[in-house]
């Protein structure tokens, strides 16, 4: 499993020798390098304290890069380019309540567009299109805080989509939902990825959500320890367990019954049984 190095000007995301520490504390990222190509679905996994959140803040231009380089669509991420990066990257956070700023669903989704000075007619169409994209068009006048958890997250996604980013970062965006809600939200994102050719960076601790990824990046104690396809990553199940990650059910059962470290789908496992 190699850490692919891409073209700073052509790839969606290029991270080169990225390190970071808060003030004089220990390093929370240690010489991390990887590339994400346009249209990829990349899952980033790791235990608490692995560096996932810091990595997100640096890729999303929330904090300045101090050691190493991050390029987003060819833009070198510096404090001078934060606003340019924010036009390219949308972030859906763990708790949608923390993202709501409007009295109604329409107001909330329109907030970012208003900040860019978009004319009302164009803004209204963009808001409605974004809500329809996530099957929430009928909730235009509803108050966000009266929605279910899954509905709130759909509205948060619509608020991001309305700004037309080409990279979406999901920051544990399903972690507050039940299993059915997690599946629904990921299906919404996959539909949007196909329709809009989005690059998706999915930060999660639910490994079952990584099985359809193009590639998985595994973080541990600030370092990138594994990088590869699901088929490659899940041949290293013991390493995943050692760093505190909980294997997907199919892989757990495969190890228990067949003593194999391998990527298996539910259907493949049933056929083996």
UniProtKB/TrEMBL annotation:
Keyword Coiled coil included in the entry's annotation: no
- Subcellular location, record wording: Cell membrane
Regarding protein family, the annotation reads: Belongs to the ABC transporter superfamily.
One function term, GO molecular function aspect: ATP hydrolysis activity
A single Gene Ontology CC term: ATP-binding cassette (ABC) transporter complex
The UniProt keyword set, sorted, is:
ATP-binding, Cell membrane, Membrane, Nucleotide-binding, Translocase, Transport
Q: What is this protein called?
A: Energy-coupling factor transporter ATPase
Matches recorded under CDD domains: ABC_cobalt_CbiO_domain1
Q: Which organism is it from?
A: Macrococcus psychrotolerans
